[in-house]
Amino acid sequence: MRFPLVLTLQALWASVCQTMQHYPAWGHYDVCKSQVYTDEGLTWDYMACQPEAMDMTKYLKVTVDPPNITCGDPPETYCALENPYMCNNECDAENEDLAHPPELMFDFEGRNPTTFWQSSSWKKYPKALLVNITLSWSKTIELTDDIVVTFESGRPEQMVLEKSLDYGKTWQPYQFYATDCLDAFTMDAKTVQDLTQHTLLDIICTEEYSRGYVWKYDKTVRFEIKDRFALFAGPRLHNMASLYGQLDTTKNLRDFFTITDLRVRLLRPATGATMVDENNLSRYFYAISDIKVQGRCKCNLHANSCVFDKETLNCECEHNTTGPDCGRCKRNYQGRTWSAGSYLPIPKGTANTCIPNSIGPVIRQNVSSLGVANRNQARVCDNELLRCQNGGVCLNNLRCQCTAAFTGLLCEKPRCESELGGCGGPDSGQAALSSTPLSTLLLLLLGSTLLREASYRPALL
Ligand SMILES: [Ca+2]
């Protein structure tokens, strides 16, 4: 009687696993592999996976160029753009309360007053006041939300947002910003709303974010990622399947949202008028209180986590891949050419796992029958894909040394299952069922009840 029960539990577990795989949290691709029971026994099922999107400003290095352009050395007093007689903005690099270093663009906002980086003033007018702010990740990342730059002073009259995909060797423009696009860049002014699926990759100049001080409460300059996503995924991004499908099949589109570095090129500060007041140049400067960049590590759909270690982000590669972006197969796993995972078919995607150079016979037999002679072929366990379960320890990749309560190739079975009276019997020793497998069994039994109930009442599902 107990044997069929075990089989039922195994079958149930398999069906629970399958159910979970078919209904993952939508669009997360947050599981790289799961263990399933099939006709061939315990095996792995692989899925495309990617890390969660996160606040990427915690992991960047910022460079401001020219290096001496940050205000306060020597100390300087600034006047308000709107009122040349209101001159109470002091900057002194030596005084912590009055200094405005670049880090203040990335600290926690919500404080009152806000904290911000500030440049020296436009003392050398009419020579252009040029500042580059470069954000470097030393890692390929994929943008998932709008880039938002919040200015503490008036927004610049001319600026360019640029990106690099090769760690800053070459740069491409992302978007041009100006009060007058034609005059500044000989480009027609457009907005993101003018873009279509066919022109999504076009680089535009927008006048949307450069209006003068009369709009002083509107302090942000955006690069609209979500509006671009929406061209495929619909206005509220409800059809991410369509977007993922496009990203999968169109490399240019995918690369468009991928960066290693960003650069804000400030070309002309806010003047609030057509004429620059040459007698009071301390009214003109740049000041940025916050930059938001949301994204995820690019791991080629081969990792669901990315760790920050020794000042660098690294994908925790699965699927026998390696490299900072999981961009190649691990040593001895070059049985076929590396390829990125795929979002398709939705929702699980395709892992495109790297496979061993030569696959030995699949080991299904009892571990005790494995001799030294076939050691090269027999890889029963390792610390990555074939992990020993329930506290078991992998010995020389040949066998799992299980704790007293468990048995099986990977220590996956409670030992009491094979004992007289089974796990439910009075002699089975409930101590053998540690809390984890007990709760698993309870879950399975609960699942079984629910599934049985569900099968009786299909109309309610
Ligand atoms: Ca700040």
UniProtKB/TrEMBL annotation:
Residues 1-19 form the signal peptide. It comes from the Eukaryota. GO terms for biological process: animal organ morphogenesis; axonogenesis; tissue development. The keyword RNA-binding does not apply. CDD domains: EGF_Lam. Residues 45-296 form the Laminin N-terminal domain. Residues 377-412 form the EGF-like domain. The keyword Lipid biosynthesis does not apply. Keywords: Disulfide bond, EGF-like domain, Laminin EGF-like domain, Signal. Disulfide bonds join C402-C411. This is Netrin G1. It comes from Oncorhynchus kisutch (Coho salmon). The gene is NTNG1.
